[in-house]
Design a protein that fits this description.
seven-stranded mixed β-sheet, 198 residues, Maf protein
Length: 198
């Protein structure tokens, strides 16, 4: 296997690659996601365009420092009826957001970019539709008590691989993309570039 870098500090993305048997090193990129996202929103960019831009910024930043290694960048956007929803900073914000998402459909837009030598080689975007159920205020209070500050690390205040799955009525889309990385198309492009065995 050739050397691969994951330009992310995400434990979920690292676990997805590790569980798939991919050898890699995590080197998180240091970009101002908030500023980039705000600028994109001001220009009227779509959720898909924003996700690709953020994933590319991460991959290209690390690729410029590690030009001889392939670098994967990834990002995810929550699209609520055209509104771009960011991560929550406090439990109170999480409670408010879950109240807004309750009983409604939203989309998770997940992008991945592969870069080499400071150039983008490939990108992919997936869109998954999720519908939250009509849970009670009591359930939300217990959910936030049990998940604590960990819920603030996830877009939408849920981790599908844990207790967060109980928030949902229906999920349409790729499981790995919902977790944060479109793994199947990424593995295909990695094989095409000789990064993993064919």
């Amino acid at each position: 296997m050739k050397s691969l870098v994951l330009a992310s500090a995400s434990a979920a993305r690292a676990k997805i690659l590790r569980d798939a048997g991919v050898c890699f090193e995590s080197l998180p990129a240091a970009i101002d996601e908030g500023a980039i996202k705000s600028a994109c929103i001001e220009k009227g960019h779509t959720a898909s365009e924003i996700a690709i831009r953020l994933a590319a910024e991460k991959a290209l930043q690390i690729s410029s420092k590690q030009p001889d290694r392939h670098v994967v960048g990834a990002d995810q956007i929550l699209d609520l009826d055209g509104e771009i929803v960011s991560k929550c900073g406090t439990i109170a914000e999480a409670r408010s957001l879950l109240g807004r998402l309750r009983g409604r459909e939203h989309e998770l837009v997940t992008a991945a970019v592969l870069a080499f030598g400071g150039e983008q080689l490939w990108h992919c975007v997936t869109r998954c539709r999720l519908v939250m159920r009509e849970f009670t205020d009591t359930f939300v209070a217990d959910y936030l008590r049990r998940t604590g500050s960990q819920t603030l690390q996830s877009l939408g205040c849920y981790q599908m691989e844990g207790l967060g799955v109980q928030l949902f009525e229906r999920i349409d889309g790729d499981h790995f993309s919902i977790l944060g990385l479109p793994l199947i198309p990424l593995l295909a492009t990695m094989r095409a570039h000789g990064l993993i065995q064919t």
